[in-house]
Fold:
Amino acid sequence: MSSNAQAPIIVIAPDSFKGSLSAPEVAQAIASGIARVLPQADLRLRPMADGGEGTLDALLSAGGRRVPLSVRGAGNASVTAEYGVMPDGTGVLESANVVSITDPVGMQTPVAERSTIGLGELLRALLDTGARRVLIGLGGSSTNDGGAGLLVGLGARLLNEAGEEVPPVPAALHRVASIDLNGLDARLKDCELVAMSDVNNPLNGTQGATAIFGPQKGVSEAQVEPLDRAIAHFAGHAHRAFNASEAASRAGAGAAGGLGFALHLLGAQFRSGAEVVAERVGLPQAVEGADWLITGEGRSDGQTLSGKTPMIAAQVAIKAGATASLLSGAIDRSALDSLSRVFSGCFSLTFGPTTLEKAIADAAGLLADSAEQMARLRYTHKG
Structure:
């Protein structure tokens, strides 16, 4: 409890509830529930993300503008994606905004024919605004092209033995004989790229992008080895072109189907997405003097404690002397013991059986009701 019991300071810092509410919407719903019990409370809303879906929304909740642009999606069809420009001129890209694993059109294209070329197109457009520091979220992608599409979208050319261009899709990467960087956007040399990812996998091998993350994107068991071999072949030529012989083995190279590899080639710095977002939305400042933080996500389980948004938010709160509670759409019962060692109270969105459709449709109302009950338990002592 803060020193002023009548006006507690409560920080609300959730991730998005994928498929139902964005992080700003989740934060607003929680705030509305708490306000029913504590109308005078100082509610500090800091929507969060970890580099995946919703990162653009969370970062721009702190100010800035978003710009829509038509680029090529994962299946090469035109999609309307967005980039963001924050008040200090920092640019923001979200891979899931271009090649999302939840995009039904892109997912209809076989995974061996999908490409990240649209992300390169979006980055070039962002560079046109004058941005020279760019945050790139790597989560939630449907692609597995080793970042070849990104490089082509930025002006590189993949060539075969005859000097003809090779499309930057996994099915064609085995035909690459050289990579021409003469057309690579020169502005990248003066641009600071920050890749937001919690994935430490290398590009290739049993722990690489294709073997570990490929199946969730549609890579069959029979495709894993040939696609991984094709990407390794491409990576060898990329190493020579960029004079970066260790990029494929570096931590994070396997993020987002190999987008991490391409970003390593471009000299990007890799950081925890949730930590970057926390800094950018001012979470450390918001918890100063606060006694309670509420965070959450669509579903919490044992992985939540491995650097995901709620864990990062809780660490920031605990460091400042506040307690942190978890309010998620669902919580894996087997993880409750470990979660309870970090969070002062773990709550799920529903209090009994319900259908998925109803939970999604009523998510905002359920969040508000749950937050109200949490506030009553904490501040009114069941009164």
Q: What stands out?
A: The chain has a mean pLDDT of 93. The longest strand covers residues 65-72. The longest helix spans residues 221-242.
